[in-house]
């Protein structure tokens, strides 16, 4: 959503930056200004100045400066929209939302109230789990065995879920309250005959790791078994307040350490985050049982310009690193640094620090593989660069990775390195790639993407009945060479094409998608995945924009011409907003079904080597039945 500049000026005139900063920094009067220790870097002598007359803050040590809105964005990690709404609420102002209908505003208000009630329920459960930990000797012994002290357990709010099936019935006055199931604390079985089903606690006999958003609100839990058992880690399900593709464990607790140390360390598990904090490495965060997404990376970039991904050195770690690289590529500007740390197979970050020490770990971080090198290794892996065919395949693999980078010095310099490694002149490679568009990755090239096989073709008999007139079939490989051909009789756009069209025309719908749907779309093969990642970034940075504004921004991207052809010159005025929302919902449903069916096929192929594959196949089968 766009906010008028006049409103921002009015808001800042009513807000006192001294009051805003003073909530987070201890300030003392020093002449005309207030002084304090800078919250953005470590220092012992105050160099952070806040001016009540200029309504401005400035650090003479690190150079950070700005107004009250900028402070909330940089210190708390809020988005621009969140910071504006936070300040407006404090001074009794209403942020203009003219672009939304009264019904939409009412739904948004209802959703905020609903989310607030759920976070309160989760906070109450967290307090009960912490209380239970104090009296359970087995849980305390387990944490001590892992080297954790009571101080770090308190900092992260660690708790214990007792082994009983209905422990929370003694915590909440009404165990039948629907909010307990809605926020993922309780599982409620619903028999097909309509009778009242069983209700029981989701988390039992587990160490509990509360998951908090950047505001410190409880939004979910991760639970780890004490000894043996499956699954080892159990997360809260997707809820109105918890979207695993958006949240990072430990970010709330570690944001100050991230700013002080100058980088964020992304690891694979909760215990790594807590154990590293115990050893003095407080800048670690972890994804929540999912691959790293562009939203994860964007959230970290609110606090630092350097992100280090730490993975095991085995094949699984390499696959996870490739997914992290895909998420980071569109955000790798000239002022940002991404590195990849591959630990020895016998170590995870916790064990490495305990055995080798913090200085050795910090040295390993400094020597971690930079993004430019990882791109080249990913492209050249298993290729015979001594043969022309091997060099050609390496460049074909590198092309979509290079194309995903934003324009700048880094992108241009990387092209020179790729050219040198494959024995081509930089000018020749630049001219070649400028003449022909990047081809979408093949199945093998996109294997790291969890949705690599989704959205490639239209599929029979699954298209919405309501279609605008005068459509044209779009070939993503054709843009840049010639206008896409007109639609032959009976030809249709692919599902990914349709979704790109509607979400560009109705960008406000992006914010209503679930985190899983957003992740599904951003991990589609190029160019669709890149377009959706770009659209996600636009939505978070600028809110919902009309197509006219998005089109101008798209013109600066490699896929801008293709996207304009996709949307067309007419924006289907005959379709209402609800019609478009229905189309998006139906297309996403079919895309989810396709993805689950493809995953099932892959699991069947793995069943002979992986005993757990059949169990996962059954889980996906249950999901398919619910969708169909």
Which key phrases capture this entry?
globular; 628 residues; alpha+beta
Task: Characterise the protein shown here.
It is a single chain. The radius of gyration is 26 Å and the shape is globular. Strand 9 (206-212) and strand 10 (218-225) form a beta hairpin. 36% of the residues are buried. The protein is 47% helix and 11% strand. The strands form four sheets. It has a five-stranded antiparallel beta sheet. A five-stranded mixed beta sheet has the order 13-12-14-15-16. Mean pLDDT is 81; it is low at 439-491 and 569-574. With 628 residues, the chain is of the alpha+beta class. Helix 16 (388-403) runs antiparallel to helix 17. It is built from 25 helices and 16 strands.
Strands side by side in the biggest sheet: 1-2-3-4-5
Number of strands: 16
What is the radius of gyration? 26 Å
The class by helix and strand makeup works out as alpha+beta
Oligomer: single chain
Mean pLDDT over the full residue set: 81
The number of helical runs is 25
| Alpha-carbon distance between the two ends | 34 Å
Largest sheet: 5 strands, antiparallel
Proportion of β residues? Answer: 5-15%
Quick take:
The chain has 628 residues and is α+β, with helices and mostly antiparallel strands.
Outline the fold blueprint:
Elements: H1 5-14, H2 17-22, E1 28-30, E2 33-36, E3 48-51, E4 56-59, E5 65-66, H3 68-76, H4 80-90, H5 102-134, H6 137-145, H7 150-156, E6 159-161, H8 178-182, E7 186-188, E8 199-201, E9 206-212, E10 218-225, E11 233-235, H9 251-261, E12 264-267, H10 270-278, E13 284-286, H11 294-301, E14 306-312, H12 315-328, E15 337-343, H13 349-356, H14 358-366, E16 369-370, H15 371-380, H16 388-403, H17 409-421, H18 426-435, H19 495-505, H20 515-522, H21 528-542, H22 547-554, H23 560-567, H24 577-606, H25 613-627
Parallel strand pairs: 12-13, 12-14, 14-15
Antiparallel strand pairs: 1-2, 2-3, 3-4, 4-5, 6-9, 7-8, 9-10, 10-11, 15-16
């Amino acid at each position: 959503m766009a906010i008028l500049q006049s409103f921002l000026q009015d808001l800042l005139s009513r807000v006192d930056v001294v009051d805003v900063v003073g909530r987070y920094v201890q300030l003392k009067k020093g002449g005309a200004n207030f002084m304090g220790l800078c919250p953005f870097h470590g220092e012992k002598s105050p160099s952070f100045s806040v001016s009540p007359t200029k309504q401005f803050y400035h650090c003479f040590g690190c150079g950070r400066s700005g107004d009250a809105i900028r402070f909330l964005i940089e210190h708390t990690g809020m988005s621009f929209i969140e910071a504006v709404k936070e300040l407006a609420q404090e001074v009794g102002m209403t942020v203009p939302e003219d672009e939304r209908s009264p019904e939409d505003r009412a739904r948004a208000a209802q959703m905020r109230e609903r989310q607030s009630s759920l976070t309160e329920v989760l906070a109450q459960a967290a307090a009960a789990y912490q209380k239970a930990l104090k009296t359970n000797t087995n849980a305390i012994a387990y944490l001590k065995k892992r080297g954790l002290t009571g101080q770090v357990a308190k900092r992260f709010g660690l708790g214990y879920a007792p082994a009983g099936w209905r422990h929370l019935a003694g915590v909440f006055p009404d165990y039948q309250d629907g909010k307990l199931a809605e926020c993922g604390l309780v599982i409620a079985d619903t028999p097909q005959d309509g009778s009242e089903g069983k209700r029981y606690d989701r988390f039992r006999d587990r160490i509990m790791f509360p998951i908090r958003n950047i505001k410190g609100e409880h939004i979910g839990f991760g639970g780890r078994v004490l000894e043996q058992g499956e699954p080892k880690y159990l997360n809260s399900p997707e809820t109105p307040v918890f979207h695993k593709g958006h949240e990072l464990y430990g970010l709330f607790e570690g944001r100050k350490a991230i700013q002080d140390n100058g980088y964020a360390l992304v690891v694979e598990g909760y215990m790594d985050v807590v154990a590293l904090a115990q050893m003095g490495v407080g800048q670690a965060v972890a994804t929540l049982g999912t691959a790293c997404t562009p939203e994860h990376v964007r959230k970290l970039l609110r606090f630092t310009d350097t992100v280090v991904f730490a993975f095991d050195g085995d094949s699984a770690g390499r696959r996870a690193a490739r997914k992290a690289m895909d998420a980071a590529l569109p955000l790798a500007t000239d002022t940002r640094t991404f590195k990849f740390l591959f630990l020895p197979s016998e170590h995870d970050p916790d064990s490495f620090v305990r055995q080798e020490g913090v200085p050795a770990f910090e040295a390993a971080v400094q020597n971690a593989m930079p993004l430019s090198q990882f791109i080249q290794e990913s492209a050249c892996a298993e290729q015979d660069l001594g043969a022309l065919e091997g060099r050609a395949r390496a460049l074909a693999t590198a092309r979509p990775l290079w194309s995903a980078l934003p324009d700048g010095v880094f992108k241009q310099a990387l092209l020179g390195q790729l050219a040198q490694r494959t024995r081509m002149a930089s000018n020749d490679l630049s001219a070649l790639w400028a003449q022909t568009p990047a081809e979408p990755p093949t199945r093998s090239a996109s294997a790291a993407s969890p949705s690599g096989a989704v959205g490639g073709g239209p599929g029979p008999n699954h298209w919405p009945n309501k279609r605008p007139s005068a459509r044209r079939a779009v070939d993503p490989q054709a843009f840049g060479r010639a206008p896409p051909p007109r639609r032959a009789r009976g030809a249709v756009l692919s599902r990914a094409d349709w979704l790109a069209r509607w979400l560009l025309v109705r960008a406000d719908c992006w914010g209503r998608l679930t985190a899983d749907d957003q992740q599904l779309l951003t991990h589609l093969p190029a160019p669709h995945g890149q377009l959706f990642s770009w659209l996600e970034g636009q939505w978070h940075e600028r809110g919902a924009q009309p197509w006219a504004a998005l089109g101008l921004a798209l013109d600066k991207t490699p896929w801008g011409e293709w996207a304009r052809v996709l949307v067309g010159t007419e924006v289907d005025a005959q379709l209402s907003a609800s019609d478009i929302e229905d189309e998006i919902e139906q297309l996403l449903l079919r895309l989810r079904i396709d993805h689950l069916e493809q995953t099932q096929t892959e699991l069947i192929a793995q069943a002979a080597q992986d005993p757990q594959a059949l169990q996962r196949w059954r889980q996906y089968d249950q999901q398919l039945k619910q969708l169909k």
